[in-house]
Structures
1.
Amino acid sequence: MASSSLDTSWCPSELATEVVGHSIRYCPRIDSTNEQALRLAEAGAAEGVVVVADTQTAGRGRRGRRWLDEPGQALLFSVLLRPTCEQSQVAILSLGAAAACAESLASEYSFPVTTKWPNDLLIAGDKVGGILLEQRGGAVVVGVGLNVNGRPESLQAQVGTALTTLEKHYGAPLPRKEVLVGILEKIDDIYQQFQAGGLAEVVDRYRRFESVFGRRVCVHVGQEVVCGTATALTDSGTLLVHTAEGECEIAAGEVELVAGSE
Ligand code: BTN
């Protein structure tokens, strides 16, 4: 399909939100929407600003990886937030963003989206998107990359992860602006819940989509690897893994699914 522009000359008042998207900064091409949102944060921008691009030249993924895109086909955006929570609770916003994407895609388009803790978005086991949360000063930037249209073969393979696009499962290209609006409205809703102290509720919204429970996993935590069966998510968003040595609670890491776990 020919690529299209997401030019947001459309008005933020189209969004039914309290905070998210009061200002939308559209860039046809940028290094990274996360980096741009962090720059805006440093310059004093208010929370809720959204940076959206048609393509990134230095898109960032988790664990220092690049995030590549097919220009004009993906959703690439970042939301600047200034939460009032404790530092240890910030990571829940990343789970909240994943839940927002999953809820919106399920309710608007009936996509059977699942998650792989902490923030991979999957369809039929293949990765369709991811979340990257970054902080600078007191600001939190939640970046979302979603492979909307185009061919998964054109995207880079991530370590051990097959990629897919929404179009592949929908059977036709999707209007990226509509997908974006639906997700921003969900992010706003979840952020309101988070700021009102409903952190466990936000984790619960995420938990409904989680695919790793009961699976054999190896979780990469820095240089260490914890292997066992993923059993549950705590109300703080940490992953419980039952290992040969006992139960292990993991706050951050990368889950690798191990063959023979179903
Ligand atoms: C992952 O590794 O799964 C997370 C990928 C997050 C990519 C998005 S694209 C928009 C935003 N800007 C970036 O540079 N990264 C995030």
2.
Amino acid sequence: MGDRGKVVLVGAGPGDPGLLTLKGKDAIEQADVLVYDRLVSPRLLEYARPMCERIYVGKTPDRHMLPQEQINVLLADKAEAGNMVVRLKGGDPFVFGRGSEEAQVLRARGVDFEFVPGVTSAIAGPEYAGIPVTHRGLASSFSVITGHEDPEKLESSIDWRLLAQQQGTLVFLMGMKNLPLIAANLMENGMSPQMPVGIVQRGTWPDQRVLCSTLDAVADEVVQRGFANPSIIIVGQVVTLHDDLAWLKKGPLAGKTVAVTRARAQASKLTEALEGLGAVVQEHPMILIAPPDNLDALRDAAVAAGTFDWIVFSSVNGVDAFFDALVNAQDICAADVLSARFVAVGPATAHALEAQGVHDALVPVRFDAEGVVECLEGKIAPGQRVLLVQAQQERDVLRAGLQAYGADVTAAPAYQSVPVEEGRASLVEALRAGDLDAMTFTSSSTVSNTICLLGDDAPLLDGVALYSIGPVTSKTMAEHGLACAGQADEATIASLAQLICQDLGGLA
Ligand code: SAH
């Protein structure tokens, strides 16, 4: 067995990615292998290192991707091979999470394990709906109960008399299918039909929904209003506090579903901005950022970095790749050893340069190649050496524009974006189901790769509002016959999110 082989069973919290513990985040950051479930936010997977192996073993209530026995074996095998394995579970691993069963198998095989508790949906779900599980005068205890028992078994496994007669709050997990039976059992055993019942669907997620009802009416209302799993059922007087204590503000994009097509590693800023406005975001990455076919030009440029008067970056990817190459070539990373003036195409790129110690990069008024050419007019002296750190597929605008000023221009392809299959199946499924209100394109390559990957399914895009980050992306959309619902004022993520908010959220 390897030195560091072990399994850390981490509670991921109920949905809102901010509810992961610091210790849980540390564990994910160190993981060699990440084994995760359906109720875990995809955003948490981004903390893992690029090389970390991600294994989805998600379950829906009726279907297991991987039977529990195989999950147990998988965890033990991966740890025995010397890996630091993180088993990421929704909520808390010990609350109907089978974390203890997995640990028993690990102990039997002599594999080390640790637990990192999580925020359980049994408490946090009600809390995000303004329903406290205890409240002085209303409930001095609470019980967390599985509602998933086989209906025939209901009477034998759960003491309904005891539950129906105690004063505390009852919190049922996995109970939506059996809700009519749960309500009937409680009433038969003496609980008032008027007892308040709250349902919190997808608590703490951007599309959280809450329903307040009574024991005799709740089963019908749930059907009428289409509430489904995953939901928490809360039975008790505390539910009446929802009216006073509900605090979660619905954002202007509440009820809208927006697809993000950029590379997974870059998606989080846009996802966060849209979720912050209340939208449900689906990430369907259509591109992957990869090294260029030929790295020689970038390597040569890094070796000769000190000879350039200007270095121009056309994206964050270029900044990352250039400074990696610089460290490799010269064993330096401090930008101040270079005498060049730096130019960033937009604020995100300037921000990435700041992280590398470059604080005075020029940023044009218009955030694209044309804007850079405009902004350098009169600043570049004839004969000055300019390095362009750019995408392999870059348009010729920069080189041509700067050469026209008499500059000696060297272009170094630093990365390329390649189509990835990863998002295709999920995107087609979402489009077919009519789930998407809007889709975002943040570069020409996200547009052309989406079209290329969708193939015959491309007409499915017709019913979706398609938003573009800037003029170059819009032009590519037009070339592919896609109708653009709107173009961001500034080519930034913030501006794109703002546009969608105004357009779809009906805000001025
Ligand atoms: N270990 C988890 C519970 C796993 S059992 C925890 O501590 O939260 C799965 C059940 O949890 C679901 O059927 C549902 O009843 C509940 N659940 C999990 N996440 C939820 C959420 N965000 N909102 C409402 N219910 C949730």
